[in-house]
Write a structure and sequence with these properties.
This protein has 508 residues and is α+β, with helices and mostly antiparallel strands. It has 4 domains: 7-144, no CATH class; 151-253, no CATH class; 271-353, DnaJ domain (Helix Hairpins); 441-508, Serine Threonine Protein Phosphatase 5, Tetratricopeptide repeat (Alpha Horseshoe), CATH 1.25.40. Helices cover 57% and strands 7% of the residues. The chain has a 5-stranded antiparallel beta sheet with strand order 1-5-2-3-4. Helix 5 (102-120) crosses helix 6 (147-155) and helix 13 (271-283) crosses helix 16 (326-346).
Length: 508
């Protein structure tokens, strides 16, 4: 993918290209866009836009709710009147006055964030800069939307004919499906009209011919092409070779199968899918290319293509953005890379020999060594940030280390430690440490640290159980000895004070 400068102007680097680049690079930081009238910020976490802020007055929550007809002008004015006299947020005031329910406020904030983001796609001339690093510490309502759908919904708002013609290829240019499966199988809910236009793309028809073949009005059809172009789903068809020979394009059966896979609805995430991801990840280094593609001992070209498109869609890492477990996302990326390498090897007749297995094993080993080195580097950076007291930054480093090397218990342990230093993150600290314990169940320090998390959360019985388990593993573990004393002392004080509430049901 082409490198995008981290500062510049949207006239030379479109917002779509910037966001796709940040998404592919799994960046975390703040993208600021500025005009003489406003500054708007997008907060990006591991490549996904999760929140937005704006200095533009019309982007404020009250104005958004008013335009969305969720509150009346009288209710708006009353909330502003109270807002000027107090330091409360307008959303909280609207709930206190009974104008909104908490659920409606939650919807309103997410609506506000999405509107701010989508408004930026209409700005043709804005300076931008991306700053790597920690995000604001205050709690925000996170936007849970795939990058593909976010770009799709936003670009569809663009109605500027001049801009569309300027950014699209000439109408005499032929278009084909992208050669990059990362573009093809994004989590995007295409409309029926989008699918109709997409079905006309065959690698030979020009834009003008697609518009003519469509039953839609020319501008409507061109706009759909523009959306698909912006998302990277379609791209310029290969130019004719020297001497006028017809350009090499994917086989017709390949394109038909790819299109069929794109148009099929996405399967919902379930426990069976997670298990399949784990099973596939566990064996990618031991399978031959044919075995990886589930294609049999002597697969033909059609079977190779058909199975690759099916597996590429199933294990596309961008389609499971809602999975909270970062180790699952890291596994998906590794699986996707492995099946792509297998596909490229099998498409060449010369590669269908016994040397496939050592070639794949060597490539996988090289990739693993590179990722382990990167993980170790992220871990060292996390230690440095932790020592400085920058727990947010340390968390990001440790989290990335677990992505690159999800089987390292020490990375998960330090991720838990950094979470435990941040307000309101004890649940995350608990989950990370439980992952470390699953990887290394006989580690007494991990059990003792889990006990400290439960003790900090007020769950004294659970804490005592963890400390006792740590001492069964290592009777001399000082951390467990001291923790058990503290927990038993706290439990004794509760008993004297008549506290019969017991442990909470979860951490806070």
């Amino acid at each position: 993918m082409m490198e995008i400068p981290l500062s510049g102007n949207t006239r030379t680097s479109s917002l779509v290209r910037i966001l796709v680049f940040l998404h592919r690079q799994r960046k975390t930081g703040t993208l600021s866009l500025m005009t003489p009238s406003w500054t708007k910020k997008l907060f990006v976490h591991t490549g996904d836009v999760i929140f937005a802020a704006s200095t533009y007055e019309d982007d404020r929550l009250g104005e958004m709710l008013l335009k969305a007809e969720k509150i009346s002008v009288e209710q708006y004015d009353r909330s502003v009147e109270i807002l000027k006299k107090s330091k409360k947020r307008q959303g909280a005031i609207l709930v206190e006055l009974g104008y909104l329910t908490p659920k409606e406020l939650f919807w309103g904030v997410k609506f506000q964030v999405k509107e701010i983001i989508q408004s930026l796609f209409l700005a043709e001339d804005a300076d931008y800069t991306f700053s790597d690093g920690e995000l604001p510490a205050q709690e925000v309502i996170t936007l849970r939307m795939s990058m593909g759908n976010l770009i799709y919904d936003s670009v569809k708002r663009i109605d500027n004919w001049t801009r569309i013609r300027r950014e699209m290829p000439d109408t005499e240019s032929a278009l084909g499906l992208s050669s990059d499966p990362l573009n093809l199988f994004q989590d995007i809910e295409l409309s029926a009209e989008d699918k109709t236009i997409l079905s006309l793309i065959d690698g030979t028809k020009t834009i003008k011919e697609v518009l003519k073949a469509s039953s839609l009005a020319s501008f409507q059809a061109l706009k759909i092409l523009y959306v698909l172009w912006s998302l990277g789903i379609i791209e310029p068809a290969a130019l004719p070779a020297a001497g006028g020979a017809k350009a090499a394009r994917p086989q017709e059966t390949d394109m038909k199968m790819t299109l069929s896979d794109i148009l099929q609805p996405h399967a919902e995430e379930d426990d069976t899918l997670i298990q399949r991801i784990n099973d596939m990840y566990a064996k990618i280094d031991t399978l031959s290319p044919a075995e990886l593609l589930e294609a049999g001992a002597r697969p033909d070209s059609e079977t190779i293509s058909k199975n690759y498109y099916r597996l590429a869609k199933e294990f596309h890492p961008d389609r499971y953005f809602a999975i909270r477990d970062d180790s699952v996302k890291a596994k998906l990326t590794n699986i996707f890379d492995a099946i792509t390498k297998a596909y490229n090897l099998l498409k060449s007749d010369a590669s269908r020999t016994d040397r496939d297995r050592p070639a794949m094993a060597a490539a996988a080993k090289e990739t693993a060594l590179e990722e382990n080195a990167r993980a170790e580097d992220q871990f060292r950076q996390g230690i440095e940030e932790f020592k400085k007291g920058n727990y947010w930054g340390a968390t990001e480093n440790f989290r990335y280390a677990t992505k690159l090397s999800p089987a390292s218990s020490i990375y998960w342990s330090y991720l838990s430690l950094s979470f435990s230093k941040m307000p309101g993150m004890l649940n995350d600290a608990e989950e990370s440490l439980l992952t470390a314990i699953k990887l290394e169940p006989r580690n007494a320090n991990f059990q003792a640290n889990l006990g400290l998390i439960y003790l900090k959360s007020g769950m004294k019985k659970r804490a005592i159980g963890c400390f006792e388990k740590a001492l069964r593993i290592d009777p001399a573990n000082i951390k467990a000895v001291k923790g058990l004393q503290q927990a038993e002392l706290a439990a004794g004080r509760d008993a004297i004070g008549g506290d019969t509430s017991g442990d909470h049901t979860g951490t806070n």
